[in-house]
Amino acid sequence: VILLFMPYKYLSYYINQDAPLYGGKKNIFLEASSLIAKGDSSNSCYMKFPNHTGTHIDFPFHFSDAGKKINDYPPSFWKFEKIKIINYKVEADQIIDQNILIENSIQEDTEFVIINTGFSKYRSQDLYWNNNPGIDSKLASLLRSECPKLRAIGFDFISLSSYQNRPLGRESHSEFLVENDILIIEDMKLEQLQNITILNITALPLLVDHIDGAPITILAEYH
Questions:
Q1: Maximum CA pair distance of the chain?
Q2: Which terminus of the chain is less hemmed in, N or C, by CB atoms within 10 Å?
Q3: Mind listing the pLDDT tens digit for each residue in 29-68?
Q4: What is the spatial distance between Cα 79 and Cα 202, in angstroms, rounded to a whole number?
Q5: Could you tell me the pTM of the whole model?
Q6: Do the strands 29-34 and 56-58 form a parallel or antiparallel pair, or are they unpaired?
Q7: Residue of 171, 93, 185 lying closest to 139 (CA atoms)
Q8: Residue in 130, 121, 131, 122 with CA at minimum distance from that of residue 92
Q9: What is the pLDDT of residue 195?
Q10: How far apart are CA 70 and CA 58, in angstroms?
Q11: Which positions ≥6 away from 89 have C-beta within 8 Å?
């Protein structure tokens, strides 16, 4: 019997103290709490950062007290078989609207839509959080009508909310998360998607009880 193992890629960034945060905040702390080099018996680390740090997921509770939390999703939820990758170049402050659907067809059985904009090239610059693209609120219901099995949308910029258009961003979060039950995965690592075909995705959020959002590790199996 010959077993063939397909390779995997991370579509998530490592968390470190240089990771950009929405609004330009600088409150990620990763500090050694013990060091063998200083005579301690082991190496260990103290970590403190917002739950919406790095590649992370938003749950409906993020924008509604009645919304679902991490606890409301069973383990089986986190495997996605039907993936649609949309390559869609954007400019700073641009709002992605229904034109993305006019230019890209999406199959109705799609479970996970990934928007690869190339905006991650600015991740080390203030432009990445201060002038990030956003997504129009009307796109949520359009996606839901075209893809009744859609469970998540992800992209390579820091937030669904454009920092320069936060009122629309709040409306968009509510439309996706609460009104249409589509989870949001922000700040994905997508530059390595060129010339590969994704077979499936396993998305593993950090299991913090009753959280509204969490860092998430995304594994893509590909060929």
A1: 62
A2: N
A3: 999 999 999 999 999 999 999 999 999 999 999 999 999 9
A4: 5
A5: 0.96
A6: unpaired
A7: 171
A8: 131
A9: 85
A10: 9
A11: 117, 118
